[in-house]
Structures are given as C-alpha cells and as structure tokens.
Amino acid sequence: MLGPGQVLRLLYIQRVLIRHGLDELVFAMHLFRPVRFVFYLLPWNWFRRGREPRAVRLRMVLEELGPIYVKFGQLLSTRRDMLPEDIAREFARLQDDVPPFPGALARRIIEEAFEHDIDDIFSRFDETPLASASVAQVHGARLKDGREMIVKVVRPGIERSIRQDLGMVYLLAEMAERYSADIRRLRPTNVVAEFRKTLLYELDLQREAANASQLRRNFADSDVVYIPQVEWDLTRRNVMVMERVSGIPVSNIDALREAGVDLKWLAEAGVEVFFTQVFRDSFFHADMHPGNLFVAPAEGRQPRIMMVDFGIMSSLSEYDQRYLAENFLAFLNQDYQKVAELHVESGWVPYDTRVDEFESAIRTVCEPLIDRPLKEISFGTLLLRLFQTAKRFNMVIMPQLILLQKTLVNIEGLGRQLYPELNIWHTARPLMERWMSERIGLRGLVRGTREHAPHWLDRLPELPGRVLDLVERAREGKLRLEWYSEDVERLRREMHENSRRDRHALIGAVLILAGILSTEMPVLMNTFMNLPVLTWVLIAAGGVFLILSLRT
Q: Which terminus of the chain faces fewer neighbouring Cβ atoms within 10 Å, N or C?
C-alpha cells in the first residue's frame, strides 16, 4: 500500500515522464492500464515529429528527477547486458554534478564531527568547494603543520533522501517485475538492491578512507602510481581529510602534450596499472573515469598517475581471476572449446550444460572480433559478449565482474583517446601469463608451499599423536570411514524406496493369493469364520498394498 508521500512522488515522476514525451511508460503501468485509451486522445500524441530519440529523453528524465536517479542511471549504464545499447550509451553521459551546499554549513558539520572549532584544526579552510557531487563535496584546507589537504563532507540530510528515493525506485522495479514478463527476466529489484548497497557504502567515508589506505599500501613501491595519504585522526563517518594532490586531468590531452608527457607510455601504463590491481592485488579501483585520474609531470623521469575518489572499489576471488585470465588467453588462441569448458568447470554455468552447444554460441560471438586487428579488439566488449552468451545458458553475472567490465570500458576508452594505436592485448597478456605461471606448474607449487608452510609447521607437532591414535583405533577395530556424497545419498534413498515398494507388492500379492486359495479350503476356513467375509478382506488388503507399492 502506497503512503501519501509515495503517491505524490509517483505522480511527480509521471508528470516528468509525460513532459518528456514518455507517456507510454506511464500508461503501461498496471494502475493506468484501464484508461490506456486516454494516451491516444492526448493532443500532443497526435503528431510526434521533432522529438529527441528515446534514449536522450530517458537521460533528461533522470537528470530532472535528481541526483539519486542520475547515479542510478550511471549504474545502469554499466549493465549493458541488460539495457539496449542506445540507452546504455546515453546513460553513460549522465554527470554527477549538483549545486554545492553552503560552505558555512560544511564548516558546522566538520566542527560537530571533531567537537572542535575549525580554526583549532586547520590554519585555512576554503568555504568555496573544489567539487560538488550528489553524496558529498570537497573543500581545500591547510593543516597547522603546513600540509595541503582536501576535506570531503557528506551532504547533510542525504541519507534520508537516498533511502526515500531508493524506496520509490524499488517500488517501481517491483511493479515492473509484477506486470511485465520481459522486465522480470532482467530482475530489476536485484539491480536496485545492488545500487542501494553501493550508494550507502559511499555515505561511509571511513570505508572510503580504508579503501584508499589499502590501495596506497599496494602501490607503496611504485614509481608510476601515487595514492594520497589519509589523515586518520581527522576522519569520521561523514568527514574525511586526505592529502591534496595536484596534476593535469588525464582527459586534457593538449596540456599533457605541452608538459612533455609521452602519451603512448601513459596509455600503456594506465592499462598495466589496472591489470596489476586485478591480477596481482585482487583489489581494484572500480571508478577509474577521467575525472578521478591526474598526471603529475616530473623533471628527468616519467610522470606519475594519481588517483582520487575511492568510494567504489571491488575485489576478485582467485576463481574470478583464473576465469578472466584463462578465458582471455584461450580467446587469443581461438580455442573456443577451452572457453566453454572453463565456464563449466568453474561453475559459472550449470554442470549439465552441453559443451558443444556452448562452444558454438561462443564461436558465434567471438569469431567476428578475431577478424579485426588485435589492437582494435576491446577487452570490455569481449567480456560483455561472453557474459551475454553465458547468460543464455543460465550464468548468473556477479556484481564484481560487472564493475570490472565497466572499468575496463573506461580504461580502454581513455587509453585509445590518449594513443589510438594502443594494443591493449599486447600490454595485458604478459601480466595474465605471469599470474597463471605463478599459480600453475613449478612456480605455483613453490608459491603454494611458501604460503602454507607456516600453517603446516604449526600443525606438525600434533601429527605423531594423530598417527598413533589412528593406528590404535584401527587395531581395536574402532576405525570407521565416514563418507557423504549427495549422489550416493540419493541412490541410497531410491534403493530404500524401491525395497519398500517391493515389500508392499509382495505382501499384497500374498494376501490376494491367500484370498483366492481360501476358496479351495472351505472346510478349514468354515471352522474359524465366515468364508465370504474373509475372502474379501484378504483381497481388499492385498489391493491396498499393491496400490501403495505403485504410489510410493
């Protein structure tokens, strides 16, 4: 049941949809289906010339509805396995740029978080924000020791607003699932739940600070990447203080050229940094768009890539990493059967999937890409097509792989903007092969032994006692082997049911036979009871047991 506030919000959404010529979405709702004929009577629907394409109008609707809907559209733009290509491409243009809230209010939030006057913390605080987004805004500041910092402040009242808008988005997703079989297959409520989790994570700046610290630690020895340092003493859930870094925005190609930056090196370094995060660290920045990347030129050495905004990070399990590396390498070798087998072996698709059918579907997707020059083949496009193919075979796409695919698209697009001749496969292949060699073969054995040796040594003193106990139990006949298998257990149950049916059938047959034979022994039976009654009782009982044997 909708509350008054939700009804008003729903009516407002419908008004915005109608204003942008999306009446059909309003009248497709179950609530308005009985009056759908009104849609055709509205004067502005008689002539539909001069309107923007559908995808553009949808983007404009999200921008008008506000920042939460903008962020939701940005998330949907990464789900190209769900959206038509034109809508996904248009949603990718959504900008998370909203008017700032007053600097005086930011000052008050900071003072409440630290329980100190802001002048006791900073020697300078800039009330005019450097940047403003839907969840937080960033101010410049200087600590008492002279270090330049940025102060990120969560927008006041945003959590309440987010929860209200998310409730409405979830309601719309539920209604869409309930009344549209096509939309139900896309499971929009799952997408909304994923979006809710991501957005609420962004509200916790301590989580973002922890992400930044982990990434800084991973690249502590790097001459290529620099991650700003978090000031933990001045970080709370709604306020974060971090080292301020400066550089040229990676999208400003003219400024990079003027600074003497080698664009070929920069494009290849960006790809290598991303795949290092994926395969070496299994922890990657999942929002590597141009606004979060800067380049700091340096005299006499290569420049450094600086990352900011660590609200959206993701990690991959070793299974995920192996899935990616082996599939990409098998694709390069045009071994489509290997790609299909990897999906089945890793459990990404059901184990009863026919490998030959899956292989044929993958070949259909991949072969057109192989005919193109290797430098033109997109990692992100390949991964998306593999996902779309596997989805037809009931593969469930994990959120971390969607984030990976989205980030790959960003990195590839940026890399080729910097250096159109970039060969991403040539840059990434050595990293994937190195990762594989470290986990398979002699190097993998040495690495595994080194990693597990401390655990083995810790358990080693217990080993003699356990062996003696095992020998003693075997000698006394107390050793019992316990083995459980679902298949064996299912077979045992079937054998038990068959045995029970056989017993019922045997008893029924004996009783019926006894009833028939009793007609040949009238003298003996008349000694004990009335013959017709006994005969029919035996036959009836036998019939019951036979029926039970057939039903069970």
A: N
